Structures are given as structure tokens and as C-alpha cells.
Amino acid sequence: MSLYQRINATTGLLVGEPGPLPANLVGLKDESLADLEQALGSTIAHELGFGDTGFLPVPPPEPEPPPVRRDITRILFLQRIPAPARIAIRTAGKTNPIIEDFLDLISATDTINLDAADTLAGVAYMQSQGLLTEAEAGALLA
Hints:
The protein is an alpha+beta fold. It has helices spanning 36-40, 42-47, 74-79, 83-93, 97-107, 117-128, 134-141, and strands at residues 3-8, 14-19, 53-58, 71-73, 111-113. Strand 1 and strand 2 (14-19) form a beta hairpin. It is rod-shaped. 13% of the residues are buried.
């Protein structure tokens, strides 16, 4: 649905909030009339209740840009983890099914989305297990 801004054709001031074109103006030859009195004639415009009134089309809002994915390669992701922590994580993965699952997810892809729920949860879990410090977890997701 197109929106129109009502304006006072004499002063150029906006009147009210944008809305649909009034029903009795729909279908006019030019629906983007800035001055209805000029387009319709003073008598008709006043009979319709639009004396000294015009309507300007309101452009639609710009669409939201798609979210930016922050992906890095698997090797870069793993290289962000200090070697001692990487070794501790692999060792813990042999007995901890949550860490094992996270490592399986990492190995199943070529790229890691740093903002994905699985990535955030996996890093938070490794931090909660003492396998990553807060600074290491932050650097990993930066």
C-alpha cells in the first residue's frame, strides 16, 4: 500500500501523518497531486474537502540490509586458540561428549560462522570448563 503525505498547498506545511490516499482521490489521473485545487479546480477540491490541500507520495523505507556473516576458515579458527589450550580441548573431547560434539561440528565444515549459536555455545562451554580464558574466548570470537 502506497502512503501519501498530506500538505497544505498554500504554506507547504505537512498535515498529519502519512497514510493511504483518501478513497475519493484514488484513480485520479495523477495521484501524486501536490496541489489538488490546481489539478481539480477550486470548486471540486473544496467540495471534496481538500481545499488548499495536496498529497505527495511517501517513498517506501529502505529495506534492511542483510545481516553480515562473520565467517572464518576452520584453520584460522583453530589457530586463534593457543596451542596448549587446543591440545587441552582435544584431550577433553575424548571424555566430554559436549566438547567432542563441538569439535565434530568444527571438523564438518570449511568455515566457522563466529556468530552462530553453536559456535557461541561451544566457546562459552569450553570457557566454563576452564579450557579457555575469557581473553582467549573473546579473541577466538573477535
